[in-house]
Amino acid sequence: MKKTTFVFAMLLMSVSAVAQTFVSTVPEKRNVLIEEYTGVNCQYCPLGHKATDQTLAAFPGRAFAINIHQGTFASRFTTQWGNALAGQASIDGYPSSSMNRHAFDGGSIHIDPGQAYSCAMQVMEMDAPVNVAATVDIDPVSRLIVVKVEVFYTGNAANSTNMLNVALIQSNVLGPQQGGSA
């Protein structure tokens, strides 16, 4: 009896050691991340923002966006990664976007923002090989942010090595947009 109890206890401990705490273990469809390349001096970028906003509104909770200010039109609000991301997406004009860093036509991951809705429909029909969830704790006194990310593979990934980027974005940053209107 002691041996059976010990084996059961060890089995229970090993299961709890690998148990997922907050990420779903049920296979799911992919969500959409639109990376929109822009700059405050881009007079046509408001058209891209509108197309992105319409896609986000059509798929609440399934579509998300990051505006990446980079290149010659971005005199401010830039990051050290913007130009490298735009290079990876083969951005050669504005407004431009990429979605899930997926190559829709087999080549470049660049898409025109006007394609966002139709591309989102395609992406959201794809099975996700991995579920990703995150929790964030913010201490307003120390201004410390702790992000905990958990993944669970529900299928085979396309590559044997997988990497994850965690981006901290800020909304409601006031700044003029050339070509923008109220």
Would you identify the CATH H-level superfamily of the domain at 32-126?
Answer: Glutaredoxin
Strand content range: 15-25%
- CATH class designation of the domain at 32-126: Alpha Beta
Provide the succession of SSEs. HEHEHEEHEE
Poorly predicted segments: 1-17
- The CATH topology of the domain at 32-126 comes to Glutaredoxin
Helix content: 25-40%
Cα end-to-end separation: 76 Å
Provide the residue-averaged pLDDT: 86
Broad structural category: alpha+beta
Query: What coarse outline follows from CA principal-axis ratios?
Result: globular
Structure description:
With 182 residues, the chain is of the alpha+beta class. It has a domain at 32-126: Glutaredoxin, CATH 3.40.30. The chain has helices at 2-18, 45-58, 82-88, 116-123, and strands spanning 32-38, 63-69, 96-99, 110-111, 130-139, 144-153. Strands 2-1-3-4 form a four-stranded mixed β-sheet, covered by helices on one side. The protein has a two-stranded antiparallel sheet with strand order 5-6. β1, α2 and β2 (63-69) form a beta-alpha-beta unit. It starts with a helix and ends in a 29-residue tail after the last strand. Residues 1-17 have low confidence and may be disordered.
Identify the notable features of this structure and list them briefly.
182 residues; alpha+beta; Glutaredoxin; four-stranded mixed sheet; two-stranded antiparallel ribbon; 4 helices; 6 strands; globular; disordered N terminus
